[in-house]
Design a protein that fits this description.
single chain; alpha/beta; Rossmann fold; five-stranded parallel β-sheet; 8 helices
Length: 236
């Protein structure tokens, strides 16, 4: 249980860049952070968990919950959880939802966050979703989070009030890199790659969005990639 008198926020920390910046923002907003990480059978599950622990250590977070919802892998429908389906290479100009989309994942994860928030008497949930500069996932849109917050308001005890905060929702990856740099966020501890746990592939949507964000922000990305070729051929 919490040790301070600060208000509590449950922060979803996937281990990625966006969630790390979200953590910094929640701390700057004066919250005691309850860090939540959810494994769902994804390819890079162990690497993301390690990043979650490293980010939580960096911010001195004592309240941590790492849990598993492996049923999303059993359900399938995504290249992130079905190893028989190859993760598609990035195509940032495409308007199609890529095969890395995990059906309704954020609703599953947010439901866990709400349950924990209610027990902790937390007043906010932070999630680093990005709408403008993302892969077009339908559950990363502001309209989705607004609707989910309305649902939460009728599904918890009457004296529970939880806001769902998406401070990065209208930012680009370059904006997020710059913001993270200004806040002193440990971006070097984060992991974005969808398919590799040792060296980032540099080819999946998440890697290319990250690399392009750093390039446009004029800041070096210090994590290790399998090849430097992708850095030289980034979409403008």
């Amino acid at each position: 249980m919490p040790k301070s008198s600060k208000p509590i926020a449950v922060v979803l920390i996937s281990g990625g860049m966006d969630s790390a910046v979200c953590t910094a923002l929640a701390q700057a907003d004066g919250f005691e952070i309850a860090a939540l990480h959810v494994n769902y059978g994804q390819r890079t599950q162990q690497r993301e968990l390690a990043a979650f622990q490293a980010i939580s250590d960096f911010y001195g977070i004592d309240l941590r919950l790492a849990t598993d919802i492996g049923y999303l892998a059993a359900i399938g429908g995504s290249s992130l959880t079905d190893f028989s389906v190859s993760v598609s290479k990035a195509n940032l100009s495409s308007r199609e939802i890529p095969n890395s989309y995990v059906p309704f994942r954020n609703a599953n994860i947010l439901s866990i966050a709400v349950s924990w928030a209610e027990v902790l008497r937390a007043s906010a949930i932070y999630i680093g979703a990005v709408e403008e500069d993302s892969s077009g996932y339908p559950d990363c849109r502001k309209i989705f989070f607004d609707a989910f917050e309305r649902m939460v308001s009728v599904g918890v005890k009457p004296d529970t009030h939880i806001s769902i905060r998406t401070p990065l929702i209208n930012l680009t990856k370059a904006d997020i890199v710059r913001l993270g740099s200004e806040l002193g966020t440990p971006l070097h501890l984060t992991w974005s790659c969808y398919q590799s746990e040792d060296f980032a592939c540099g080819e999946c949507d998440s890697c290319v969005l990250r690399l392009r964000g750093f390039a446009r922000a004029g800041i070096s990305d210090t994590i290790s990639y399998k090849s430097d070729v992708q850095r030289l051929n980034l979409p403008k």
